[in-house]
Each structure stands twice: as C-alpha cells, then as structure tokens.
C-alpha cells in the first residue's frame, strides 16, 4: 500500500508540495495529463489529487418542438488516471470520491477497484448540484452527504460491506481527507454550523482537511484557529489557486463563494490582457505561498485546473 497523506506529513521536516488535476475530457488521452504533471515533477510532489465528476443532464433539440434528455459524463476515468499516474510516475495519488451520481454500491465497487490498485488515499466530498439546479439531489440509494460517505468508507475499513452476509471479508485501509471552507461552505448558515459538521466528519473517520481556495492568508489562519478551538486537531492543508483570467474576478466568487482582496482585484483590473493577469496571479500566489510556508503549514496544495505552467513558476520561487 502507498504512503498515506498523514504519514507524509508526519515524516516531513518542512512544508510539502502537492497539486490537483482534472481527469481528461472523454475522448482525450493521457497526454494532456502528462503535460500537466511533467513540469511539476522536479518539485517532488508528495501526492496528486484527481477530481471526480458526476454525470450531467443535457437537453438537446429533437425537432418538432420536442426536447431530448441525455445524461453524459464528461470526465470519466478518475480511477484509471489515478492508477496510470501512480505507476507511471511513482507518485502517490488521492482520487476524489463523491456522492453525486453514485449509489452506495457504485461507491463500494470504486473503492474495491482502488484497493486492488494499491491506492489507499482518498478525498471525500459531496459534490456540487447538477448544473442548472440549486439543490443537491443524491442518487436513489446514494449518499446524501459527505458524512454519510465517510461512514460507509469507515465501515469498509472495518471489513463491513453493504452485503452483510459476505463471509471472510477483508478490511480496507483508506486514509480519508475532507474539504474545509475558511470562508464557510456556501450552503452553511454560519461558520459555527460548518465547523460542527466538519468535526463530525473527523469523528466519523477523516484524518486530514484540505481547504477550499482562498486569496487572503488571514482567512486560513483564522480558520485553523477556529478548528483548534473546536478540538479539530488533524492536519489542515491550505489549497491555493492563482488567478489566471480577468473572468476569474466574477467566476471565482460566484462559483466558490470566496472573497477576492481589494489589492488583488485592483492589480487585475490594470492588466491589458490575460497574459498580464496570469502573471499577477502568479506573483500573488508566490507571496501567499511564502507566508504560509514561513508559518510551517503541512502542505501547499495547488489547484491547477489542468494547466501547470503558472504552478511551475510559483513552485520555483517557493520550493
């Protein structure tokens, strides 16, 4: 079995480097993944996260005033990509396991596949509502909340499968991470409620936290302080994403529910094109990273969105 995220942190004498990738779009091959990973290998990433994406419902014009409903999965292959990275690069992988679009049996089968592949690090998230909807709707016999998903995985870690009649079952050994929100989850009524459920996830079996992106380090420091006051004492890994386009000024707050600092917005608005915006994002993330590293955070975790040239520039200045 591979080294767990928590063991990486325990064994480290300094801040580690990691990043997150999207699986390729359906119909694409491993080349795009290699192009994202290769520039970052020199910084010795401790692990690479691979996102999971539920199916989407698409409505197409069928003619005669009719609409055809079609279900598609645009980015399948998280398990396969995770295995390819693990055995191509020898780097630990952390596939995401989500509630959306999966029954509990689907989840169990995916976890069995990961166990066969020797992958025992996972990040558990509920997942977003379907595009065009505001409310998350689980699959029939699916997990409605990340907490439910953690409880299912913890049972598997104890050798308890959905079919309780199975004999001579093997226990699994998944190291479970969960998401944390320095500016609270968009669906939480307040931070206190958010932390209440975060603590329940830790009590249910999660052993580390990776934060949503933030652009003001004080948000992270305050979040860690609040967690410790609530007796949430697992490692809290800061997640960072450099601004790369002018549209991010609108899309990031809208999509992720995070604030952008006034000074960052001013610098982006001065830019003549997205090349300049990308450089502003790199410089801002470098300063964030240096301050966080000086504060001895366990890991600096970067959201690449599939492109890593800007992450490479940041890592060269920080690691």
Q: Spans of 5+ residues with little confidence (pLDDT < 50)?
A: none
| Helical content class | 25-40%
Supply the number of helical segments: 11
Q: What is the string of SSEs from the N terminus onward?
A: HEHEEEHEHEHEHEHEHHHEH
Q: Please give the domain count.
A: 1
Outline of the structure:
This protein is an alpha/beta fold and 319 residues long.
Q: What are its keywords?
A:
11 helices, TIM Barrel, two-stranded antiparallel sheet, 319 residues, 8-stranded parallel β-barrel, alpha/beta
Textual characterization of the structure:
The chain is of the alpha/beta class and 319 residues long. It has helices spanning 5-11, 31-37, 78-89, 104-116, 146-157, 191-204, 217-229, 248-256, 262-270, 274-294, 309-318, and strands at 16-21, 47-50, 56-63, 66-72, 92-98, 121-125, 175-180, 208-213, 236-240, 299-303. The protein has one domain: TIM Barrel. It has eleven helices and ten strands. β1 (16-21), α2 and β2 form a beta-alpha-beta unit. α10 runs parallel beside α11 (309-318). The mean pLDDT is 91.
